[in-house]
Design a protein that fits this description.
The protein is mainly α and 543 residues long. It contains 22 helices and six strands. Helix content is 69%, strand content 3%.
Amino acid sequence: MVAVVEVRKGTKSFEEAVTLAGYGKYNLYVLLATGCALMCVIIETMNAMFITPAAQCDLELSLSDQGLLYSISFFGVVAGSHLWGYLGDTKGRRKIVLFSLVSSAAVSYIGSIIAITWLFILLRFINGILIGGSSAIIYAFAGEFHDNYYRPKVVSYIATFVAIGNMYLPGMAWLILPQQWEYYISFLDINFRPWRLLMIVYATPSLISALLIYLLPESPKYLLVRGENEEVMRILQNIYRINTGKDRTQFPVGSLTSDESVEGLKHEKNECMLSSMWQQTAPLFRKGYLLKTAMVCYLHFAIFLSTSAIIMWYPQILNSMSDYGQVVPSNEVTMCTAILYDEADYKNDIPEVGVGSGIVRSITSQICIDTVNEEVFLVSLIIGFVYAVSYIFIGTFINTFGPRRLLIGLMTFTTISGVIAQHLSGHTYIQVALGVFLVAATGVGIVNAIVVELYPTQIRGMALAVSLCVGRFGAMTGSNIAGPLMLYLCDYMFYVFAASHLVVIIMVFLLPKKKPDVPKIDTVDVEKTVTNNNTDAECSQQK
């Protein structure tokens, strides 16, 4: 029996070793911790949908100020994304995520007691930069605790927490914003009202998530690339112990070999930061990765653009249809006629529903009204629930159908729904069709799974950071073009998005194909074929 153990405790690749460590309670905790961190990214970048309208009276926000606040967090994420990707690949995933979560929460807490408009906007921009660290790194961090079989599933399941964040936002807003209390704080010269408490409630999950991440070690695959084999063995033994219930000394691996070159992460010791950043970024745009990088960047850009354009304006669309439904029978309401009717009301100086807010605001009156339309909360909760179901479906079947087939099916189905919504009559039918279109946002999780497959460990964090940065730029673009599209080209708006999604589908067909899977114990070969699709075919034969 001893002889058998000695034979099994040989040298294994990381993929073989992490497979032998098993999948169980430890991995579920990784999923929980990293998923909560991603949820915090959504909460911090999207909370302007509810904070901005409710704060418009206290901060005396103009329409341009409100528009800026809707997109300023995305600007921050884009501004810091490249730097975070570099730091994640050179300084460690865990350190960056921890700093990102704690610092962004601190800035939000400070913002909750600010009464100066420009300073409040600046703090939201800084908050976007800081929370962008988690956005850029978290997928790579989670994926590197798993082998090739579980990695795409876990990355997809993590995206389920995006849906939870989208439910947390309206849920907490619905609970807090309708309250009518306020307290004057003399030394700050502010009225502490429900929206300020809501900011604190939105920031607190970041601290809880930081605690969950703190209890995790650094990514074992990252440490292996850095040459810290002993620490990697300790982590894998601990994973084995928790997952199997056996003693860590029974872990059937004696030593590890690195699957990927460690040279890509050694240069920062002898080079300045800018030079090191270039060394991390340049491989993404060189032969073998340039086409992949361009393609995944466009996938993120197109999905973020269309879904962010609609989700940020969704409350305005709902309110426009509600207003128009009081003039004509509900079953005769169409999206574009309702929007144009609402715009005509605005020009005639009658009460208007604030852009992207669900807030009733009188144009002619000097009284500022910041009462939230509760229908916005309910519909947002329903959309968040649909997101959750979609992400669970994707995580369950991503290995069965493959990420490419899932993405093609998702984009086709949701695009058709969006085009149909443009021509439907009836408030309820349009709501449902638009809600289905917004499910396209779950495609971001599938694209992230594809990115994790396509790039090796030493540039994976940067690849995710760059592609998500382009995606956030798409979100900013979509939020800004949606208004003019609805007002001047409403009848063609979803055809614009459909054309963009058609290019997505074509690009997915052209993405490098994953080689057929081999048994899980031999996943080292799969890793090489996935992360080096355009390299010499001998890599898949090196066992």
